[in-house]
Amino acid sequence: MTASVLEVTREGNIVRFTLNRPEKKNALDYATLSAFCQAAEAVEKDESVRCIVFTGAGDVFTVGGDINEFVAQKHRLTEHLLDMLKVMHGAVLALRRAPAPVIVAVNGIAAGGGLGLVAGADMAIAKRSAKLVSAFTKSGLTPDSGTTYYLPKLIGRQRAFDLMTTNRMITADEALAMGLVARVVDDADFDRTVNEVAKTVASLPSGTGLGVKRLISREARRELEEHLEAEAKSMASMGSQAETLAKLDAFVAK
C-alpha cells in the first residue's frame, strides 16, 4: 500500500499533520497540497479538536514547492501555479478558521512555503538544528502561503524584505531572536517538548485556546484572504517569465 503524502493522526483532541515525502525533503507538490487542503478543511469543521500540530517526516519540515514538478509543468506553469496556490491558500485559510490553535513543529529546514507556514502558526517550536530560508526569489518566484502577510508583522518590514530578497538562511536561534518562532528546543528534547506543549494547549478550559487565537487574529481574516489572492496572482505571473523558467531548469540540472 502506498504511504500517504500527508499523514493525519489523532490522539484525543489533538490532531497531527505530518508531511510524508521524506525522500523528496517533503517538497510540496500538487498531490500533497491537495491532501493538506482536504485535511485542513475537515479539521475546520471539527469542533472537538483542541490543538493542531503540523510537522514533517524525517529531518526536514519542508523545502517548499516541488521544483521538479514546476519544471515538468513549465509548458503551463502559470496555470499550474494557480492550481497549486488555490489548494495551498485554501489550506492556510482553513487552518486560520479552524477551531483550535496551530502549532508548527519545525523539525528541520523550513523553506519557501514552509517559511510561510511557520510565520502563520499560532506558535512555532523549532529544533535547535533547524534552519529557515525564503528561497522564492532565488527560483524567480515571489512568495506565497501568506509569507508576505505574516513575516513583516512578526519581524518587521526591513528584516522581512532582507530575508525574502537575499534568501539568507537563518538558524533557529536567529529566528527566535527575530520573533519568527516562539521556542527553540535541543534536538533530543524536541518531540517531548512539542507533545507537552500540545497537551497543555489542548487541556485548556473549553474555548480559551481558541479564544486567544481568535482575539489575536481578530479582524484579520478578510485581509488575509485578499492578501493570499494577491500573492497567487503575483507568483503565477512569474510563471510566464523566461528568466524564471531558466532558473527552475538550472535548479533541477544542479
Protein architecture, described:
This protein has 254 residues and is an alpha/beta fold. The protein has one domain: 2-enoyl-CoA Hydratase, Chain A, domain 1. The protein is built from eleven helices and ten strands. It is globular and about 55 Å long.
A few lines on this structure:
This protein has 254 residues and is an alpha/beta fold.
Task: Please give a handful of descriptors for the protein shown.
17% strand, 2-enoyl-CoA Hydratase, Chain A, domain 1, 6-stranded mixed sheet, globular, alpha/beta, 254 residues, 4-stranded mixed sheet, single chain
Q: DSSP helix count?
A: 11
Main beta sheet, described? 6 strands, mixed
Mean pLDDT: 95
For the record, what CATH class applies?
Answer: Alpha Beta
Strand order of the largest sheet: 1-2-3-5-7-10
Topology:
Elements: E1 6-11, E2 14-19, H1 30-44, E3 51-56, E4 60-62, H2 67-72, H3 77-97, E5 102-106, E6 109-111, H4 113-119, E7 123-127, E8 131-133, H5 147-155, H6 157-166, E9 170-171, H7 172-178, E10 183-185, H8 190-202, H9 208-216, H10 221-238, H11 242-253
Parallel strand pairs: 2-3, 3-5, 4-6, 5-7, 6-8, 7-10
Antiparallel strand pairs: 1-2, 8-9
Helix pairs in contact: 1-3, 3-10, 4-5, 5-6
